[in-house]
Design a protein that fits this description.
With about 170 residues, the protein is mainly α. The longest helix is centred in the middle third of the chain and has 29 residues. It contains five helices and no strands. α2 runs antiparallel to α3. About 60% of the residues lie in helices and about 0% in strands.
Length: about 170
């Protein structure tokens, strides 16, 4: 993997990233699209205004996604939901910190390449951490809890006619 400043990589949704819940998988696809959009702006020297607008959109959608994911985790009794929520707060804080730093350094019509290479690299590193550490290593940990429910299940549909799937038990005889 290229780690030079501004070395963007396109994130790709793969079925291996699925947590087997339509709402969360849809959110993850959208987040990957937003992250790819920001990375494209870094690579193509967009204006700082466009970049901060895209980062704000990412932050807004992230907040919506984190609320949904945390509600689902609580409803399914995921035992690590508290620590997972703390990770969400950390990612949100990092995103807001980077956006604030960009705004404080930017002047008028500056383009992204006027920002320090270290700052541009921190943005890319945050996205790598988000995908690798959070989605792959953390979100996939609650997949076994979600697999007990239909893929279209949400806490809002919990009282409807959906039945949880019985876990497959191996015969011990």
């Amino acid at each position: 993997m290229d780690t030079r400043p501004d070395s963007a990589f396109q994130l790709q949704w793969r079925e291996a990233l699925s947590v087997k819940n339509d709402a969360i998988d849809r959110d993850h696809r959208r987040l990957i699209g937003l992250i790819n959009r920001v990375q494209g702006m870094l690579a193509h020297d967009s204006s700082v205004g466009e970049l901060t607008q895209a980062l704000d959109e990412l932050a807004d959608y992230t907040a919506t996604h984190f609320r949904r994911e945390e509600a689902i985790q609580q409803a399914i009794g995921y035992p690590e939901s508290r620590s997972h929520a703390m990770q969400h707060r950390d990612l949100t804080h990092q995103l807001h910190t980077i956006t604030a730093e960009i705004l404080s350094l930017a002047h008028g019509g500056n383009t992204v390449h006027a920002l320090a290479p270290e700052l541009r690299q921190r943005i890319l590193n945050l996205f790598r951490e988000w995908l690798i550490t959070h989605i792959i290593q953390q979100d996939l940990r609650y997949k076994p809890w979600l697999e007990r429910f239909p893929s279209d299940w949400t806490p809002a549909t919990a009282g409807q006619s959906h039945q949880t799937k019985s876990p497959v038990l191996k015969n011990s005889f």
